[in-house]
Write a structure and sequence with these properties.
The protein is an alpha/beta fold and 305 residues long. It has nine helices and eight strands. The longest helix is centred in the last third of the chain and has 13 residues, at 291-303.
Length: 305
């Protein structure tokens, strides 16, 4: 695939930015046991890279404070540490008493870290679905751990991975350096030639403000981008659903005066047009947004510009 990519002249245009930084060899996030099964949800992903060591070949760490009438559930969590780079990623199993655990997946992870295994690493902050820090792949779906309920069926064993097709910093922490570089590249802020003549704020009619609904709510959790096959294959140059939704947020803003420049930056074969309307992004968004529609609106604006 790499040879095919480099031999294609139209993909080597100097106007197309490349965002992939140099990254030393390290673990690459995969979702296990899905190759022979149909996709259970749009966020479920596959990878050509080697899957982690199965939980069948690792130990299970039990709940140290299990009650008499314990409602025990098993969680299989992806583990990899840069301190042991030669070791393969593995699925570590933990059992928790749901009677002593909060209702959300993030509650389970926090309890594992606080009471069972302090070496487990993951991101979290607001616990309200606002910051996007706890984005991960849970039971085959990209979502936020703080908004994902623990299935109460104890026979169902939950599997938790980092966001798929990302480099892993440690355990459930993905490296989003490139994602944020792409976000920076679209200049995600209001651009105007000058201040309003009356010296007041940049005003907007209620109708124009309403056009931003479904766009400004994006929290940049990267769930949509990392569920997109086109982004898996072309993440060096394709901006991906999240960044394109943010780009349309400014194209749709009546106060912005640099729409022509924003469109020109997307006018190449890779930044925008790698979207093939698979719509994994819209199905997996934990905030219920529709990046696929935003991308379609950009294409329409480019066609009729």
């Amino acid at each position: 695939m790499a040879a095919l990519r480099t031999s294609t002249p139209r993909l080597l245009r100097s106007t197309i930015p490349s965002f992939r930084p140099f990254i030393a060899i390290r673990s690459y996030a995969t979702v296990e046991e899905t190759i022979s099964k149909p996709m259970k949800a749009a966020g479920e992903s596959l990878s050509a890279t080697q899957p982690p060591v199965s939980e069948k070949h690792t130990s299970t760490i039990g709940d140290p404070n299990k009650s008499e009438n314990a409602k025990t559930k098993t969680f299989h969590v992806y583990r990899w540490s840069p301190e042991r780079p030669t070791e393969k990623p593995r699925m570590q199993s933990y059992t928790l008493d749901l009677n002593k655990t909060g209702p959300m997946m993030l509650d389970a992870l926090i309890r594992i870290k606080n009471e069972v295994d302090p070496t487990l690493t993951f991101r979290r902050s607001c616990r309200e679905g606002i910051c996007g820090s706890c984005a991960m792949n849970i039971d085959g779906v990209n979502t936020l751990a703080c908004l994902c309920r623990i299935p109460t069926d104890t026979k169902h064993e939950s599997r938790i991975y980092p966001l798929p097709h990302t480099y892993v910093v440690k355990d459930l922490v993905p490296d989003l350096t490139q994602f944020y570089k792409q976000y920076k590249s679209i200049k995600p802020y209001l651009q105007k030639e000058g201040k309003p003549a009356d010296g007041r704020e940049n005003r907007q009619s209620p109708a124009d403000r309403k056009k931003l609904d479904g766009l400004y709510e994006c929290i940049l959790c990267a769930c949509c981008s990392t569920s997109c096959p086109s982004y898996w294959w072309n993440s060096e140059q394709y901006l991906g659903p999240a960044v394109l939704l943010q780009s349309y947020r400014w194209l749709a803003d009546s106060r912005d005066e640099y729409k022509a420049e924003r469109k020109a930056a997307l006018d190449n074969s890779m930044s925008l047009y790698r979207c093939h309307t698979i719509l994994n992004c819209s199905r997996t968004c934990p905030k219920g947004l529709n990046p696929g529609k935003a991308i379609a609106e950009i294409k329409k604006a480019m066609a009729f510009a």
